[in-house]
Amino acid sequence: MAGSPPAAAACRVAAALALLLAVAACASQPVSEAVDRPAAPASAAPASVGPSPSGSGAEPSSPASPSSAPATPSAATTVPPKPGNPTFTLAKETTGKNGTSTQEYKLTWTSPDGAADSFLVYGLTECLRDTKRYDGKPCVVRGMRIPADHLKLLATVPGDQRSTTLSWTIGDLGVLPYPAILLRATNEAGNSIFTIVHSENVCFQCTY
């Protein structure tokens, strides 16, 4: 026989209370630390896409770019200027036998650093203006063309030096063995024009 409505309602209330008590009992228990899959190791964290911190040794060094390679010296592309401000000074003279003497001259000049690989000192073997017209005047002047077969190489001086010495033996007349001393700078691009270091004067029809 079916119960009366009040009795049925009481039963439903009792069932609801029982369910609430069961839920409350479960909520009061500690939560489990177990998981259904292993935790990801710390090393599995995503890698940074930004640059590594300055000074970090973990990143491999980048290969050197072509622009960072040491520059190689290039060949000279400009002929050096002619040496400037030459001097020609008798530094020492030693008297020898039979009226001869040995003279030592010091040459100096100026030149920009690095412009020349070396300097060439020449003696002019003949006075190029030995005529009556030029008697008493220098054997060589600026602008003259100097024949190669009238030149004798007396010294080759490294490009980082600005002086050298020349020596020779002269007779009792005191005449220098060369009517003129010429100097030029040189590098891989070519030779400068000559600088007149010293020139004797024309002595027309003189004999020695």
Concise structural overview:
The protein is built from 1 helix and 8 strands; from the N terminus they run αββββββββ.
Write up this protein:
There is one protein chain. The protein has 208 residues and is mainly beta. The chain has a domain at 84-199: Immunoglobulin-like. It contains one helix and eight strands; from the N terminus they run αββββββββ. The protein has one helix at 5-27; strands spanning 84-95, 101-110, 118-124, 151-158, 163-170, 180-187, 190-191, 195-199. The radius of gyration is 51 Å and the shape is elongated.
**In sequence order, what are the helices and strands, one letter per element?**
HEEEEEEEE
Assess the beta-strand content as a share of residues. 25-35%
CATH architecture of the domain at 84-199: Sandwich
Low-confidence runs of at least 5 consecutive residues? 21-73
Please provide the count of β strands. Answer: 8
Count, helices: 1
Report the CATH topology name of the domain at 84-199: Immunoglobulin-like
CATH class of the domain at 84-199: Mainly Beta
Distance between the termini: 169 Å
Provide the CATH superfamily of the domain at 84-199. Answer: Immunoglobulins
So what's the overall shape?
Answer: elongated
Look at the structure and give the mean pLDDT: 77
What class would the helix/strand composition place it in?
mainly beta
Highlighted features:
208 residues, mainly beta, Immunoglobulin-like, five-stranded antiparallel beta sheet, three-stranded antiparallel beta sheet, 8 strands
Question: What is the topology?
Answer:
Blueprint: H1 5-27, E1 84-95, E2 101-110, E3 118-124, E4 151-158, E5 163-170, E6 180-187, E7 190-191, E8 195-199
